Design the sequence.
Protein backbone atom coordinates (compact mmCIF):
# COMPACT_ATOMS: atom_id res chain seq x y z
CA UNK A 1 0.00 0.00 0.00
CA UNK A 2 1.44 3.30 -1.04
CA UNK A 3 0.79 6.50 0.82
CA UNK A 4 0.29 9.73 -1.02
CA UNK A 5 0.85 13.18 0.31
CA UNK A 6 -1.64 15.90 -0.50
CA UNK A 7 -0.29 18.52 -2.88
CA UNK A 8 1.28 21.46 -1.17
CA UNK A 9 -0.79 24.57 -1.91
CA UNK A 10 0.95 27.56 -3.40
CA UNK A 11 1.51 30.14 -0.73
CA UNK A 12 0.20 33.63 -1.23
CA UNK A 13 2.33 36.68 -0.46
CA UNK A 14 2.61 37.04 3.29
CA UNK A 15 4.26 39.23 5.86
CA UNK A 16 6.73 36.42 6.60
CA UNK A 17 8.80 37.08 3.49
CA UNK A 18 12.39 35.86 3.63
CA UNK A 19 14.85 38.40 4.93
CA UNK A 20 16.77 38.10 1.68
CA UNK A 21 13.79 39.63 -0.13
CA UNK A 22 14.74 42.97 1.34
CA UNK A 23 17.81 42.83 -0.89
CA UNK A 24 15.94 41.80 -4.02
CA UNK A 25 15.45 43.98 -7.04
CA UNK A 26 17.28 45.20 -10.08
CA UNK A 27 20.49 47.22 -10.16
CA UNK A 28 20.07 48.32 -13.77
CA UNK A 29 19.40 52.09 -13.79
CA UNK A 30 18.07 51.92 -17.36
CA UNK A 31 15.41 49.40 -16.34
CA UNK A 32 14.40 51.53 -13.37
CA UNK A 33 14.14 54.73 -15.41
CA UNK A 34 12.27 53.21 -18.35
CA UNK A 35 9.98 51.28 -16.01
CA UNK A 36 8.36 54.53 -14.88
CA UNK A 37 9.46 57.02 -17.48
CA UNK A 38 6.79 59.62 -16.70
CA UNK A 39 7.85 60.10 -13.06
CA UNK A 40 11.58 59.46 -13.35
CA UNK A 41 11.81 61.93 -16.23
CA UNK A 42 10.59 64.90 -14.23
CA UNK A 43 13.06 64.29 -11.40
CA UNK A 44 15.92 64.08 -13.87
CA UNK A 45 14.67 67.25 -15.57
CA UNK A 46 14.54 69.11 -12.23
CA UNK A 47 18.11 68.12 -11.37
CA UNK A 48 19.36 69.13 -14.82
CA UNK A 49 17.57 72.50 -14.74
CA UNK A 50 18.82 73.33 -11.23
CA UNK A 51 22.38 72.43 -12.22
CA UNK A 52 22.14 74.39 -15.47
CA UNK A 53 21.02 77.63 -13.83
CA UNK A 54 23.55 77.17 -11.01
CA UNK A 55 26.26 77.23 -13.68
CA UNK A 56 24.71 80.04 -15.74
CA UNK A 57 24.25 82.28 -12.68
CA UNK A 58 27.62 81.45 -11.08
CA UNK A 59 25.91 79.83 -8.10
CA UNK A 60 23.60 82.76 -7.31
CA UNK A 61 20.50 80.62 -7.94
CA UNK A 62 21.55 78.30 -5.08
CA UNK A 63 22.40 81.06 -2.59
CA UNK A 64 20.47 81.11 0.72
CA UNK A 65 18.70 84.36 -0.11
CA UNK A 66 17.59 83.22 -3.55
CA UNK A 67 16.31 79.84 -2.36
CA UNK A 68 14.24 81.67 0.25
CA UNK A 69 12.90 83.99 -2.45
CA UNK A 70 11.86 81.04 -4.62
CA UNK A 71 9.83 79.63 -1.73
CA UNK A 72 8.15 82.98 -1.06
CA UNK A 73 7.53 83.95 -4.68
CA UNK A 74 6.09 80.69 -6.03
CA UNK A 75 4.35 79.13 -3.03
CA UNK A 76 0.88 80.21 -4.18
CA UNK A 77 1.42 78.56 -7.59
CA UNK A 78 2.37 75.32 -5.83
CA UNK A 79 -0.81 75.51 -3.73
CA UNK A 80 -2.88 75.96 -6.89
CA UNK A 81 -1.03 73.05 -8.52
CA UNK A 82 -2.17 70.70 -5.72
CA UNK A 83 -5.82 71.43 -6.47
CA UNK A 84 -5.30 71.55 -10.23
CA UNK A 85 -3.69 68.11 -10.45
CA UNK A 86 -6.69 66.59 -8.63
CA UNK A 87 -9.04 68.33 -11.07
CA UNK A 88 -7.00 67.03 -14.03
CA UNK A 89 -6.82 63.50 -12.60
CA UNK A 90 -10.62 63.58 -12.52
CA UNK A 91 -10.69 64.43 -16.22
CA UNK A 92 -11.50 68.14 -15.89
CA UNK A 93 -9.79 71.53 -16.08
CA UNK A 94 -10.23 74.80 -14.16
CA UNK A 95 -9.52 78.08 -15.94
CA UNK A 96 -10.88 80.32 -13.19
CA UNK A 97 -8.34 79.91 -10.39
CA UNK A 98 -6.48 83.13 -11.16
CA UNK A 99 -9.71 85.13 -10.93
CA UNK A 100 -10.67 83.33 -7.70
CA UNK A 101 -7.26 84.22 -6.23
CA UNK A 102 -7.97 87.87 -7.05
CA UNK A 103 -11.53 87.76 -5.66
CA UNK A 104 -10.62 86.09 -2.36
CA UNK A 105 -7.73 88.49 -1.84
CA UNK A 106 -10.04 91.40 -2.61
CA UNK A 107 -12.67 90.24 -0.09
CA UNK A 108 -10.01 89.86 2.58
CA UNK A 109 -8.58 93.30 1.82
CA UNK A 110 -11.96 95.04 1.98
CA UNK A 111 -12.76 93.50 5.36
CA UNK A 112 -9.33 93.99 6.94
CA UNK A 113 -8.03 97.20 5.35
CA UNK A 114 -11.14 99.16 4.44
CA UNK A 115 -13.50 98.07 7.23
CA UNK A 116 -10.92 97.44 9.98
CA UNK A 117 -11.83 93.87 10.94
CA UNK A 118 -9.21 91.58 12.54
CA UNK A 119 -6.78 89.94 10.13
CA UNK A 120 -8.10 86.45 10.81
CA UNK A 121 -11.62 87.51 9.84
CA UNK A 122 -10.26 88.39 6.41
CA UNK A 123 -8.66 84.95 6.07
CA UNK A 124 -11.83 83.11 7.10
CA UNK A 125 -13.94 85.22 4.74
CA UNK A 126 -11.56 84.52 1.86
CA UNK A 127 -11.73 80.77 2.52
CA UNK A 128 -15.54 80.91 2.69
CA UNK A 129 -15.70 82.74 -0.63
CA UNK A 130 -13.37 80.17 -2.20
CA UNK A 131 -15.52 77.27 -1.01
CA UNK A 132 -18.66 79.02 -2.32
CA UNK A 133 -17.02 79.54 -5.72
CA UNK A 134 -15.99 75.87 -5.82
CA UNK A 135 -19.54 74.81 -4.97
CA UNK A 136 -20.87 77.08 -7.75
CA UNK A 137 -18.58 75.41 -10.29
CA UNK A 138 -19.32 71.94 -8.88
CA UNK A 139 -23.06 72.37 -9.25
CA UNK A 140 -22.80 73.33 -12.91
CA UNK A 141 -20.24 70.63 -13.77
CA UNK A 142 -21.50 67.72 -11.68
CA UNK A 143 -25.26 68.21 -11.65
CA UNK A 144 -26.01 70.33 -14.73
CA UNK A 145 -23.58 68.34 -16.86
CA UNK A 146 -21.84 71.35 -18.43
CA UNK A 147 -18.17 70.70 -19.34
CA UNK A 148 -15.74 72.11 -16.81
CA UNK A 149 -13.89 74.00 -19.54
CA UNK A 150 -16.99 76.10 -20.26
CA UNK A 151 -18.05 76.52 -16.63
CA UNK A 152 -14.65 77.67 -15.44
CA UNK A 153 -14.09 79.86 -18.51
CA UNK A 154 -17.33 81.63 -17.58
CA UNK A 155 -16.10 81.72 -13.96
CA UNK A 156 -12.84 83.33 -15.04
CA UNK A 157 -14.79 86.25 -16.52
CA UNK A 158 -17.45 86.33 -13.80
CA UNK A 159 -15.11 86.40 -10.81
CA UNK A 160 -12.71 88.84 -12.45
CA UNK A 161 -15.64 91.20 -12.87
CA UNK A 162 -16.69 90.66 -9.25
CA UNK A 163 -13.14 91.47 -8.16
CA UNK A 164 -13.35 94.81 -9.93
CA UNK A 165 -16.69 95.51 -8.25
CA UNK A 166 -15.48 94.53 -4.78
CA UNK A 167 -12.36 96.74 -5.05
CA UNK A 168 -14.15 99.56 -6.92
CA UNK A 169 -11.38 99.10 -9.50
CA UNK A 170 -8.69 100.40 -7.13
CA UNK A 171 -5.92 98.69 -5.14
CA UNK A 172 -6.07 98.35 -1.35
CA UNK A 173 -3.03 98.23 0.95
CA UNK A 174 -1.36 97.71 3.38
CA UNK A 175 -2.39 94.72 5.46
CA UNK A 176 -1.54 94.58 9.18
CA UNK A 177 1.70 92.89 10.18
CA UNK A 178 -0.05 89.70 11.35
CA UNK A 179 -1.61 89.16 7.94
CA UNK A 180 1.70 89.80 6.18
CA UNK A 181 3.39 87.09 8.25
CA UNK A 182 1.34 84.41 6.47
CA UNK A 183 3.51 84.70 3.35
CA UNK A 184 6.45 86.80 4.55
CA UNK A 185 6.99 85.54 8.11
CA UNK A 186 9.70 83.20 9.39
CA UNK A 187 10.26 80.90 12.34
CA UNK A 188 13.76 81.71 13.53
CA UNK A 189 15.62 81.21 16.80
CA UNK A 190 13.23 78.70 18.41
CA UNK A 191 16.12 76.32 19.12
CA UNK A 192 18.96 78.80 18.93
CA UNK A 193 22.02 78.40 16.73
CA UNK A 194 25.23 80.30 16.09
CA UNK A 195 24.92 81.99 12.70
CA UNK A 196 22.17 79.61 11.60
CA UNK A 197 18.69 78.56 12.69
CA UNK A 198 18.82 75.18 14.44
CA UNK A 199 15.03 74.77 14.25
CA UNK A 200 15.13 74.81 10.44
CA UNK A 201 17.80 72.09 10.45
CA UNK A 202 15.75 70.05 12.92
CA UNK A 203 12.70 70.23 10.63
CA UNK A 204 14.88 69.24 7.67
CA UNK A 205 16.23 66.20 9.54
CA UNK A 206 12.70 65.25 10.59
CA UNK A 207 11.60 65.43 6.94
CA UNK A 208 14.49 63.16 5.88
CA UNK A 209 13.57 60.56 8.51
CA UNK A 210 9.91 60.72 7.51
CA UNK A 211 10.80 60.27 3.84
CA UNK A 212 13.09 57.32 4.57
CA UNK A 213 10.45 55.52 6.65
CA UNK A 214 7.76 56.15 4.04
CA UNK A 215 9.73 54.86 1.05
CA UNK A 216 11.01 51.86 3.02
CA UNK A 217 7.45 50.87 3.89
CA UNK A 218 6.43 51.32 0.26
CA UNK A 219 9.35 49.16 -0.91
CA UNK A 220 8.52 46.44 1.61
CA UNK A 221 4.89 46.38 0.48
CA UNK A 222 5.91 46.11 -3.17
CA UNK A 223 8.26 43.21 -2.35
CA UNK A 224 5.49 41.46 -0.44
CA UNK A 225 3.37 41.40 -3.58
CA UNK A 226 6.33 40.58 -5.84
CA UNK A 227 6.33 43.90 -7.65
CA UNK A 228 9.55 45.21 -9.23
CA UNK A 229 11.77 47.42 -7.07
CA UNK A 230 15.32 48.70 -7.24
CA UNK A 231 18.07 46.76 -5.51
CA UNK A 232 18.70 47.56 -1.86
CA UNK A 233 22.00 49.40 -2.48
CA UNK A 234 20.27 51.61 -5.06
CA UNK A 235 17.40 52.15 -2.65
CA UNK A 236 19.84 53.32 0.04
CA UNK A 237 21.57 55.54 -2.51
CA UNK A 238 18.23 57.11 -3.51
CA UNK A 239 17.30 57.84 0.12
CA UNK A 240 20.77 59.29 0.75
CA UNK A 241 20.55 61.49 -2.35
CA UNK A 242 17.10 62.84 -1.46
CA UNK A 243 18.17 63.34 2.15
CA UNK A 244 21.23 65.28 1.02
CA UNK A 245 19.08 67.56 -1.14
CA UNK A 246 16.61 68.18 1.70
CA UNK A 247 19.37 68.95 4.20
CA UNK A 248 21.14 71.24 1.74
CA UNK A 249 17.87 73.09 1.20
CA UNK A 250 17.32 73.33 4.98
CA UNK A 251 20.94 74.47 5.49
CA UNK A 252 20.50 77.29 3.00
CA UNK A 253 17.25 78.40 4.61
CA UNK A 254 18.84 78.20 8.05
CA UNK A 255 21.58 80.58 6.91
CA UNK A 256 19.09 83.05 5.44
CA UNK A 257 16.08 84.05 7.50
CA UNK A 258 14.99 80.72 8.94
CA UNK A 259 11.98 78.56 8.12
CA UNK A 260 9.29 80.41 6.09
CA UNK A 261 5.81 80.05 7.57
CA UNK A 262 4.37 79.63 4.09
CA UNK A 263 6.65 76.60 3.57
CA UNK A 264 5.07 74.96 6.62
CA UNK A 265 1.61 75.63 5.17
CA UNK A 266 2.68 74.15 1.84
CA UNK A 267 4.26 71.08 3.48
CA UNK A 268 1.08 70.37 5.45
CA UNK A 269 -1.01 70.66 2.27
CA UNK A 270 1.31 68.31 0.37
CA UNK A 271 1.17 65.70 3.16
CA UNK A 272 -2.61 65.92 3.57
CA UNK A 273 -3.41 65.81 -0.13
CA UNK A 274 -0.80 63.15 -0.79
CA UNK A 275 -2.58 60.91 1.71
CA UNK A 276 -6.00 61.98 0.39
CA UNK A 277 -5.21 60.96 -3.18
CA UNK A 278 -3.33 57.74 -2.39
CA UNK A 279 -4.92 56.33 0.76
CA UNK A 280 -8.61 57.31 0.79
CA UNK A 281 -11.73 56.11 -0.99
CA UNK A 282 -12.31 59.61 -2.37
CA UNK A 283 -8.84 59.69 -3.93
CA UNK A 284 -9.27 56.29 -5.58
CA UNK A 285 -12.65 57.36 -6.91
CA UNK A 286 -11.16 60.48 -8.51
CA UNK A 287 -8.59 58.31 -10.30
CA UNK A 288 -11.32 55.89 -11.36
CA UNK A 289 -13.50 58.65 -12.81
CA UNK A 290 -10.64 60.16 -14.77
CA UNK A 291 -9.25 56.82 -15.91
CA UNK A 292 -12.46 55.10 -17.00
CA UNK A 293 -15.73 56.91 -16.36
CA UNK A 294 -18.12 54.14 -17.53
CA UNK A 295 -16.32 51.56 -15.39
CA UNK A 296 -16.43 53.90 -12.40
CA UNK A 297 -20.18 54.37 -12.80
CA UNK A 298 -20.73 50.60 -13.11
CA UNK A 299 -18.65 50.12 -9.95
CA UNK A 300 -21.05 52.26 -7.96
CA UNK A 301 -18.94 55.41 -7.70
CA UNK A 302 -21.12 58.46 -7.05
CA UNK A 303 -19.63 60.43 -9.91
CA UNK A 304 -21.68 63.59 -9.42
CA UNK A 305 -20.82 63.83 -5.73
CA UNK A 306 -17.12 63.22 -6.31
CA UNK A 307 -16.95 65.80 -9.11
CA UNK A 308 -18.76 68.33 -6.95
CA UNK A 309 -16.24 67.98 -4.12
CA UNK A 310 -13.30 68.08 -6.54
CA UNK A 311 -14.33 71.61 -7.52
CA UNK A 312 -15.16 72.63 -3.95
CA UNK A 313 -11.63 71.59 -3.04
CA UNK A 314 -10.21 73.59 -5.95
CA UNK A 315 -12.10 76.66 -4.75
CA UNK A 316 -10.76 76.18 -1.23
CA UNK A 317 -7.15 75.89 -2.39
CA UNK A 318 -7.63 78.91 -4.69
CA UNK A 319 -8.66 80.86 -1.59
CA UNK A 320 -5.57 79.64 0.29
CA UNK A 321 -3.45 80.81 -2.64
CA UNK A 322 -5.37 84.11 -2.63
CA UNK A 323 -4.55 84.71 1.03
CA UNK A 324 -0.89 83.84 0.44
CA UNK A 325 -0.64 86.07 -2.63
CA UNK A 326 -2.36 89.06 -1.02
CA UNK A 327 -0.15 88.62 2.06
CA UNK A 328 2.95 88.42 -0.12
CA UNK A 329 2.01 91.54 -2.13
CA UNK A 330 0.72 93.31 1.02
CA UNK A 331 -2.51 94.32 -0.66
CA UNK A 332 -5.18 93.47 -3.21
CA UNK A 333 -5.14 94.56 -6.85
CA UNK A 334 -7.80 94.21 -9.55
CA UNK A 335 -5.31 92.45 -11.85
CA UNK A 336 -4.05 89.99 -9.21
CA UNK A 337 -3.85 86.34 -10.24
CA UNK A 338 -3.49 87.05 -13.94
CA UNK A 339 -2.35 83.87 -15.78
CA UNK A 340 -2.04 81.90 -12.53
CA UNK A 341 -4.30 79.20 -13.96
CA UNK A 342 -1.84 78.55 -16.78
CA UNK A 343 1.08 78.22 -14.36
CA UNK A 344 -0.90 75.74 -12.24
CA UNK A 345 -1.97 73.71 -15.28
CA UNK A 346 1.59 73.69 -16.58
CA UNK A 347 2.89 72.47 -13.20
CA UNK A 348 0.41 69.58 -13.21
CA UNK A 349 1.20 68.47 -16.77
CA UNK A 350 4.97 68.87 -16.42
CA UNK A 351 4.68 66.87 -13.19
CA UNK A 352 3.30 63.85 -15.03
CA UNK A 353 -0.48 64.35 -15.12
CA UNK A 354 -2.15 62.88 -18.21
CA UNK A 355 -4.17 65.06 -20.57
CA UNK A 356 -6.99 62.52 -20.61
CA UNK A 357 -7.16 62.19 -16.81
CA UNK A 358 -6.66 59.27 -14.46
CA UNK A 359 -2.90 59.83 -14.01
CA UNK A 360 -0.96 62.22 -11.81
CA UNK A 361 0.34 62.76 -8.29
CA UNK A 362 0.54 65.64 -5.84
CA UNK A 363 4.30 65.17 -5.50
CA UNK A 364 4.64 65.20 -9.27
CA UNK A 365 2.73 68.48 -9.47
CA UNK A 366 5.07 69.94 -6.86
CA UNK A 367 8.10 68.89 -8.90
CA UNK A 368 6.50 70.34 -12.02
CA UNK A 369 5.84 73.59 -10.17
CA UNK A 370 9.44 73.68 -8.93
CA UNK A 371 10.70 73.20 -12.49
CA UNK A 372 8.66 76.23 -13.59
CA UNK A 373 9.80 78.21 -10.53
CA UNK A 374 13.49 77.44 -10.99
CA UNK A 375 13.27 78.28 -14.70
CA UNK A 376 11.49 81.58 -14.09
CA UNK A 377 13.79 82.56 -11.26
CA UNK A 378 16.92 81.58 -13.18
CA UNK A 379 15.91 83.53 -16.27
CA UNK A 380 15.12 86.56 -14.12
CA UNK A 381 18.56 86.37 -12.51
CA UNK A 382 20.09 86.23 -15.98
CA UNK A 383 18.08 89.25 -17.12
CA UNK A 384 16.23 87.34 -19.86
CA UNK A 385 13.47 89.39 -21.49
CA UNK A 386 9.92 88.59 -20.36
CA UNK A 387 8.89 87.67 -23.91
CA UNK A 388 11.63 85.05 -24.11
CA UNK A 389 10.60 83.67 -20.73
CA UNK A 390 7.06 83.14 -22.04
CA UNK A 391 8.40 81.37 -25.12
CA UNK A 392 10.53 79.03 -23.00
CA UNK A 393 7.65 78.20 -20.65
CA UNK A 394 5.36 77.48 -23.57
CA UNK A 395 7.89 75.15 -25.17
CA UNK A 396 8.46 73.30 -21.89
CA UNK A 397 4.70 72.75 -21.48
CA UNK A 398 4.41 71.52 -25.08
CA UNK A 399 7.29 69.09 -24.60
CA UNK A 400 5.74 67.78 -21.37
CA UNK A 401 2.40 67.03 -23.07
CA UNK A 402 4.16 65.51 -26.08
CA UNK A 403 6.11 63.32 -23.65
CA UNK A 404 2.84 62.12 -22.13
CA UNK A 405 1.45 61.26 -25.57
CA UNK A 406 4.68 59.40 -26.41
CA UNK A 407 4.44 57.36 -23.20
CA UNK A 408 0.88 56.31 -24.00
CA UNK A 409 1.78 55.23 -27.53
CA UNK A 410 4.81 53.37 -26.22
CA UNK A 411 2.71 51.57 -23.60
CA UNK A 412 0.08 50.67 -26.21
CA UNK A 413 2.76 49.31 -28.54
CA UNK A 414 4.14 47.02 -25.83
CA UNK A 415 0.81 45.30 -25.26
Sequence:
Amino acid sequence: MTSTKPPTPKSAPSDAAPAAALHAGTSDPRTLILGNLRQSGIYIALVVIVALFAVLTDGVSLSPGNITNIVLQYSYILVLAIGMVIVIIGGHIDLSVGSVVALTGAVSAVLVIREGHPWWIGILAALAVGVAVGAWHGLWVAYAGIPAFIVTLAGMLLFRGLTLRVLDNVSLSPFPAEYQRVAAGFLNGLLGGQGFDAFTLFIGAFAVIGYAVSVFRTRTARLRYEQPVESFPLFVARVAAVGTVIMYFAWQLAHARGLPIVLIVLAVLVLVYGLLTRRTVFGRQVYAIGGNLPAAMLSGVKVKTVNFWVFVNMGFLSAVAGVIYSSRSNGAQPAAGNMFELDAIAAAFIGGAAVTGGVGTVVGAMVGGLIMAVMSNGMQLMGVDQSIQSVVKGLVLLVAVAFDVYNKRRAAGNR
